[in-house]
Amino acid sequence: MADRDMHRKSVEVFRFTDPDxxxxxxDASESESEYIRLSNTxxxxxxxxxxxxxxxxxxVRFSPPDGxxxxxxxxxxxxxxxxxxxxxxMPVGEMTGSILNGREVGAGxxxxxxxxxxxxxxxxxxxxxxxxxxxxxxxxxxLGLCGLPPLPRGTxxxxxxxxxxxxxxxxxxxxxxxxxxGAMPQAVAMPGFIPSVREGVQYLLMRVxxxxxxxxxxxxxxxxxxxxxxxxxxxxxxxHVTRPIYTDELCDALAVSPRKLHKAFAATxxxxxxxxxxxxxxxxxxxxxxxxxxAAPLVKSVAYSHGFWHGPLRARLLRAVR
Length: 322
Fold this sequence. Notes:
globular; nine-stranded antiparallel beta sheet; five-stranded antiparallel beta sheet; Jelly Rolls
């Protein structure tokens, strides 16, 4: 569960051992955020919100799992910006080979995320992120001032910057500002502190965006059609959550071939449709269990209502979501 260390007007620091609580803490800017476990690795994360008025810095830091083979994905995070919010996202620290909407994220990458854009992130190991969160109209004005074209709703754009450019300093500066604010809230309350930090971040951000960088390549394995297939499959699962769903049924419902369905999931999430459906259903069970009374009768009813009918299998799967 989340441990709220402090709650000030400008600074909030949270620590989590529960991924569901972690994604819910992003709801100020995101909707339908979900964390889908692909392994049983332990989860530990820290989240710092630092509100600077015109925008907010969000720093996400993870404790690395022990003994995990980094070649295998450990989690999928699905999220979307709300209709009145936009974000700019940058990886911080060591690169872990995370995949965002079919593209591997590297050092110097800056992801612009328009309102209502959907993000599908696959973690081989958890990647730390620095995020700037702002109102949609502020985001549109910022792009215009920096000579960038408008970003249509529901889309994201990856910009790549060469080593040594201002972009290399931006995520480090955001992380340093958030860590300082979290460690020394008394400094945040000093007159002029927030305006000074805001001015410095705005200056660096304008320099970065004005240099434009290069547009990241189109996803080599992912198309909009594949994203639609994955989204339609997830929607079908939600509509039939009370019983098991198998890939043959999905192919018929979505009017796609097994090969196309497999390629869509492999490109988007790095796992097979079968593996995704099992882990997705477990995520739904976990959320339902933690929303209600943990008494045994409820556990059994939640298992039945999410398609886990077979007794031994149901017991084994429910142990995995605890």
